[in-house]
Amino acid sequence: MTIQRKVIWNALKAAGKTHPNAETIYRLAKEELPHISMGTVYRNLSDMSAKGEILRIPVMDGPDRFDWDISRHDHAVCRVCGRLFDLPAGVTYIPDRCVPKGCRLLDTQLLLQCICTECEEST
Ligand SMILES: [Zn+2]
Ligand SMILES: [Zn+2]
């Protein structure tokens, strides 16, 4: 593992369960490695998610988010503040009959559109 990748992974881990975007990870990584570039962060995040080492979560409006927790789980997003919440594993079970003929299911990613209590209380 390159030093850059290690720093990026640590930054993602340090962000806990906040599911940061690339820019936030970049800011955190920069504290460790002041000369790291945004391009390096993007490239490593893409590579790591392609290899299944981290989870990339596309959200509808805004940049992709990332999770170091690669255990099988889905997410809910608050439409107001953009916070991502983990859903318990096993929420999405797709029976074989729902998979289009001629296809094999590889993965699912469910994103519930929500409003969190905090946002609801402040409106
Ligand atoms: Zn919210
Ligand atoms: Zn998650």
Describe the structure.
The protein has helices at 3-14, 22-32, 38-50, 117-121; strands spanning 55-57, 65-67, 75-78, 84-86, 111-114. It has a three-stranded mixed beta sheet with strand order 4-3-5, with no helix packed on it. Strands 1-2 form a two-stranded antiparallel ribbon. A hairpin with a 5-residue loop joins strand 3 and strand 4 (84-86). It folds into two domains: 3-67, Winged helix-like DNA-binding domain superfamily/Winged helix DNA-binding domain (Arc Repressor Mutant, subunit A, Orthogonal Bundle), CATH 1.10.10.10; 75-121, no CATH class. By secondary structure, it is of the alpha+beta class. Helix 1 (3-14) crosses helix 2 (22-32) and helix 2 (22-32) packs across helix 3 (38-50). It is built from four helices and five strands. The structure holds zinc ion (2 copies). The site of one zinc ion has 7 residues, from helix 4.
List SSEs in N-to-C order: HHHEEEEEH
CATH fourth-tier homologous superfamily of the largest domain: Winged helix-like DNA-binding domain superfamily/Winged helix DNA-binding domain
Strand content: 5-15%
Low-pLDDT windows of residues: none
Q: Rg to the nearest angstrom?
A: 16 Å
- Helix/strand structural class: alpha+beta
Q: CATH architecture of the largest domain, please? A: Orthogonal Bundle
The portion of residues assigned to helices is 25-40%
Distance between the termini: 46 Å
Q: Count helical runs.
A: 4
- Overall shape: globular
Find the count of extended strands (DSSP E, 2+ residues): 5
- Characterize the biggest β-sheet: 3 strands, mixed
Order the strands across the largest sheet as they lie in space: 4-3-5
Seen as an oligomer or otherwise, the chain set is single chain
By CATH reckoning, the class of the largest domain would read: Mainly Alpha
> Which cofactor or ligand species appear?
zinc ion
Domain module tally? 2
